[in-house]
Design goal:
The protein is mainly beta and 153 residues long. The chain contains 2 helices and 7 strands, in the order H-E-E-E-E-E-E-H-E. The protein has a 7-stranded antiparallel beta sheet, with no helix packed on it.
Amino acid sequence: MSPALLPALLGLTLLLPRVQALTCQSIAVDTVIKISELPFRWTAEKEKPCADGWGCQDVLMLTENGPEVYIVVIKGCTKEKDHEARVIKHRQGPGLSVTSYTRVCRQKDLCNNLSSTFPVWTLPPTAGADKEGEEEKEKMGCGEEGRSEELFL
């Protein structure tokens, strides 16, 4: 390689676009509330600059136990790959139910904009629920204790 070519190549690399560092919403919350108070809402008042190439994440976990629910919310930077909103029902009652929501994005600053439990919270069935629909769910293996179910939003 010619000695004159090296400085020219170095100069060209400085002109190439760099991966822009994102700014993400940042918060860590855990609280216990009554299920009747759902959906729960929060505001991420902090912003955090991420390392180059890192993305923004939303993590939400609901652990229902009787009339109460334990909520964990984490928002910030991550080096994990992008993925659309993913809801996983890790365990469904009776007794204890655990559901999580995760999302990783890099399309723009502050893209981790989840602000409530709405994507994972569902109303409890009413007393006169459709018995046929419940039987169909059982046939399909839905709602079995200890079963994980993954949903993509």
